[in-house]
């Protein structure tokens, strides 16, 4: 996606490839919330053994469903906030891209002041400091 000169963009991946999403739900290490969910499932399914880091495909699909539901809720919240604050939203493949005319430092300050930076840290691509990665627009060469 071309970013206009003087603008910045941030990228919010919506989904990974289906096999990658499911692999992350099947193969440990699991996030704490997923491990807790599998522990609940273990009481009803003898094929699940948390200590042996073993789950079943149905349990993994259930966990993935919860993960995607939560992620999409966060993305919807952020997208609404970005629109209210003057960002433009576009789909680019499997990602939502938000653009706005601003320099990167000012854009980060605005995101923080608007209460969006923290949630963006959970769903957007991050830079080496752990903040949402901003891509600057480049001047075209003549």
Lay out the secondary structure.
Blueprint: E1 7-13, H1 18-26, H2 32-42, H3 57-84, E2 88-92, E3 95-101, H4 104-113, H5 117-123, E4 135-136
Antiparallel strand pairs: 1-3, 1-4, 2-3
Outline the structure in words.
46% of the residues lie in helices and 15% in strands. It has a four-stranded antiparallel beta sheet, with helices on one face. With 142 residues, the chain is of the alpha+beta class. The protein has helices at residues 18-26, 32-42, 57-84, 104-113, 117-123, and strands spanning 7-13, 88-92, 95-101, 135-136. It contains five helices and four strands; from the N terminus they run βαααββααβ. A hairpin with a 2-residue loop joins β2 and β3.
Keyword list:
single chain; alpha+beta; 4 strands; 142 residues
